[in-house]
Write a structure and sequence with these properties.
Blueprint: E1 4-10, H1 13-28, E2 32-36, E3 39-44, E4 47-54, H2 55-62, E5 75-80, H3 84-93, E6 97-104, E7 113-118, E8 124-129
Parallel strand pairs: 1-4, 5-8
Antiparallel strand pairs: 1-5, 2-3, 3-4, 6-7, 7-8
Length: about 130
């Protein structure tokens, strides 16, 4: 179960995917589990240790596509939850602000549902179920 992991939001996806593929293979013996256009992830000890996602795709999802590249998010904390709507409500009760409300994302995965919120410092958090 991928309960909690970092996701780097990258501009040059092919270069970053090749970099982390080499580094994680050489240092940790980790091979990519998923490699799709604009997305890659590596498991360590059976859980996602790192994921990469094309920054422009996420910027569209959270409404920051019109910002300059330097002002767009570069990282995100991802939490797998049983119920995205309840998790988003919980984060909001604790002071998070909603960047993108709970919604199905069939273009990202056949049964994927996500919500995007920001913690009190503005860091991006994704809660997801699939």
């Amino acid at each position: 179960m991928d309960a909690l992991h970092p996701r780097l939001l990258v501009r040059d996806f092919p270069a970053c995917a090749a970099f982390y593929q080499g580094v994680l293979r050489d240092l940790l013996g980790a091979e990519p589990v998923r490699v799709l256009p604009g997305y890659a992830s590596w498991d360590i000890a059976g859980q996602t240790g790192l994921a990469l996602f094309a920054r422009d795709s996420l910027a569209e999802a959270v409404g920051t596509a019109d910002l300059p590249q330097a002002a767009q998010d570069r990282a995100m904390l991802v939490m797998k939850v049983d119920d995205v709507d309840k998790a988003a409500d919980c984060l909001a009760r604790h002071g998070a602000t909603v960047a993108a409300p709970p919604q199905d994302r069939p273009d990202w995965g056949p049964s994927l549902r996500t919500a995007h919120l920001r913690d009190p410092e503005g860091n991006l958090i994704e809660v997801q179920s699939y």
